Amino acid sequence: MIRTVDLVKSFGENEVLKGINTEFYAGKPNLIIGLSGAGKTVLLKLLIGLFEPTSGSVFYGDTDIFDLNAKQLRAIRMNVGMLFQGNALFDSMTVGENIRFPMDMFTRKTAKEKLMRVDECLEMVNLDGVNDRFPSEVSGGMQKRVGIARALVLEPDYFFCDEPNSGLDPQTSILVDELICDLTNTHNITTVINTHDMNSVMGIGDNILLLKNGQVSWRGDKSQVLESDNETLEDFIFASPFLRRLREDALKLRHLDD
């Protein structure tokens, strides 16, 4: 589990985060949502330790990562997987080499052990047998799954995803969401997802954090979204007239059942 306590981040006189107190649970997809400028990306970078807070703490379990020295923080980061918005795959490397890269950098595994782990990870994301292809030779959805495999190759306890569905068609987005959710549940990973995708919110939002102007405006799960009377959530989730009508119809049906 990851926990933040009174987390504040300012850039000069601009206070981007204004005292965030929240928790991100293991075994669940934890979603951070909000309009552009709400502070989502800054929060994600603080959680990873790429930014230092102006004040406050980020706890991995019982450890405040900002109390650690460089060597201790590196050990924490070894236990973190990251899926970048643009996948960040190396074009000059094959799929297998991309997935193997973190093991080359951070482990002393033998070549045979690395190959076995690459195959395991490709099987996890349903991409058996594409080891020798280059990223340019596979689809955008497959590239995303390669990114997931690389992020999980070191078997991390923490997994961060920045807009995992960016650039994907709706059907592929759903498949990626389901894959991330299944891996999170199966391996009891603390997964944190920064997203604008409402399908993700309603599909895998087991723990949703809504930010507005650097503060927590709402927190709940996908089952509570339709019933919420939080105006910021309504404006964000139901900006589409179709979704607003869908919510109104769902509430009418619920009232009839009552």
TrEMBL record:
Protein name: Phospholipid/cholesterol/gamma-HCH transport system ATP-binding protein
Pfam families, per database record: ABC_tran
Alphabetized InterPro entries for the sequence: AAA+_ATPase (IPR003593), ABC_transporter-like_ATP-bd (IPR003439), ABC_transporter-like_CS (IPR017871), P-loop_NTPase (IPR027417)
GO terms for MF: ATP binding
The keyword Transport appears for this protein: yes
PROSITE patterns documented for this protein: ABC_TRANSPORTER_1, ABC_TRANSPORTER_2
ABC transporter domain mapped to chain residues: 2-238
Organism this protein belongs to: Neolewinella antarctica
Keywords for the protein's UniProt record, in alphabetical order: ATP-binding, Nucleotide-binding, Transport
